[in-house]
Amino acid sequence: MQHKYDVLVVGAGGAGLMAALYAAKGDVSVAVLSKLYPTRSHTGAAQGGVGAALGNIAEDHWEWHMFDTVKGGDYLTDQDAAEVFSKDVIEAVYELEHMGLPFSRTPEGKIAQRKFGGHTREYGKGTVERSCYAKDRTGHMILQTLYQQNVKAGTTFFNEFHVLDLIIEDGRCAGVIAYEYSTGTIHTFHAKAVILAAGGYGRIFKITSNALTLTGDLMSIYYRKGLPLEDMEFYQFHPTGLTKLGILITEGVRGEGGILRNESGERFMERYAPTVKDLAPRDMVSRAIITEIREGRGVGPDKDAIYIDLTHLPRETIENKLSEITDLARTYLGIDPVTDLVPIQPTAHYAMGGIPTTLDGECIANDQGDLIAGLYAAGEQACVSLHGANRLGTNSLGDLIVFGRRSGVNAAKFAKTVEYPPLPQGAEAGAVQLVKGLKDATGTENAAQIRKELQESMMNNVGIFRNGPDMEKQVGIIRNLKARYANVHLVDDSERYNSELIETLELGFMLDCAEAMTASALNRTESRGAHDREDFHSRNDEEWLKHTLAYQGENGAVRIGYKSVSLKGQTLSFEPKPRVY
């Protein structure tokens, strides 16, 4: 079955919906493909807020936000991207307000703002209220608002479609091939421009805040075509996930005054970050928590967690401003944050790397900076390198709305200037064979077991603390898992809603993402941001102030290339300095 649209968006989270809305404003036909009903997308799990220098509570400026973004990214952030972002996110927040997003309010009726880790005033002199929030359901509110606006704009939605291939020929994207859950049929979507916005790949880890659908499908498809993935070694672990479960406990908890405590009740972040304490950037807090656990100061039956303490906060603050996380703790742990300490542990949360793009969302094809005409990417799936080596809290939702909008605007402009590119002969053949090959397979391996081993080994060997021998071992583990994956067998042969088939397809994509991440991390012999190597403790700007590009090679090998870091914005630039918090 064939469909034809000027602009096609893959993914219906915040970035995809923002891109679709602004493409539709460009007077072109727009369709969105999504694994899920749009308002179930993973953006809904984002709790804390959108960082923007509105200055509604205290003095704030976009320059300070830019500085925090660059410093928080451990100077691997592209500074032109940080400047564009820090300026544009202010306008984007007000746009969401005008669309009807129900932000929490100050007594004067302004958008409420609260403190968040890594966000400072006067270039690091103290903390600042910058996070614009809707209680602790900010991402959910963004999804609802943008979906309603897309319905109003006439965007067409294809829900429960799984993209299996990108149609790219001679450096030009012509659409995608997708599998429909409800019928088991393959669809060809012909487009002048395609925007990839399908989220991250956190399910490669055992403990993660990511939804089951975040398996890096489009990153893998891009990688399989010999195209690069950028900075895959940088993966953020959020410091506070519910113990054992990984369910996110927003940084807004600490922004409202929550305190991290070890077994003895010590506020241990005073030792690691004496200035900002519990509001240090996420990579620092995650490492501090793991250090406390390693040194025997953990809590719980296995001594593998730490407490977050809200008991000193007013009940009204906990019940009203933090209602969602309060419900989560009560539901999943049987613990009431009003009266009890909540056990947490770091959880795999966010990919700083992904498909390399320009500031306008155009996908980059190689080390030389060549572009794939008609192909754009935004959100966690993309790497414009706003986040560098470590994303600041609240900058993910800002990224979605700023670069989702830029991608949508530019894709629509491009679509209005070109004709539909020709579809290659047999464009769907690869996707058809991919599905048929799995259905017809007569192997002996079980996909669920392979996935379990992948997740456990990635958590152990390429987690918060890393070293060469463990990652060398992980390279071999992934190579072995890929070989076993080629011998997988499906039990379910149904055509409609075959979840075993979908999960097995996703496993193949996850293995690719894990391969690129592990090779990139092993190659980078320094510690920077979220990439912390026990055998190379220091940041090495002379050798490693550059982006990694990972290309799929033969027989499990990964070819590594590099891309320069943009060290200058239009107005400001910040030279790398030691990290002091």
Q: What's this, in brief?
A:
By secondary structure, this protein is of the alpha/beta class. Helices cover 35% and strands 21% of the residues. The relative contact order is 0.18.
Lay out the secondary structure.
Blueprint: E1 2-10, H1 14-24, E2 30-34, E3 50-51, H2 62-72, H3 79-99, E4 113-121, E5 126-132, H4 138-153, E6 156-159, E7 161-169, E8 172-180, E9 186-196, H5 217-224, E10 229-230, E11 235-242, H6 252-255, E12 259-261, H7 269-272, H8 282-294, E13 306-309, H9 315-321, H10 323-333, E14 342-351, E15 355-356, E16 362-364, E17 371-377, E18 382-383, H11 395-415, H12 429-440, H13 447-461, E19 465-466, H14 468-485, H15 499-523, E20 532-533, H16 541-544, E21 546-552, E22 558-564
Parallel strand pairs: 1-2, 1-9, 2-6, 9-17, 15-18, 19-20
Antiparallel strand pairs: 3-5, 4-5, 7-8, 8-9, 10-21, 11-14, 12-13, 13-14, 16-17, 21-22
Keywords: Electron transport, FAD, Flavoprotein, Membrane, Oxidoreductase, Transport, Tricarboxylic acid cycle
Catalytic activity: a quinone + succinate = fumarate + a quinol
EC number: 1.3.5.1
Walkthrough of the structure:
It is globular, with a radius of gyration of 22 Å. It has 16 helices and 22 strands. With 581 residues, the chain is α/β, with parallel strands linked by helices. Among the domains are: 241-345, Flavocytochrome C3, Chain A, domain 1; 429-543, Fumarate reductase/succinate dehydrogenase flavoprotein-like, C-terminal domain (Methane Monooxygenase Hydroxylase, Chain G, domain 1). The model has no long low-confidence stretch (mean pLDDT 95).
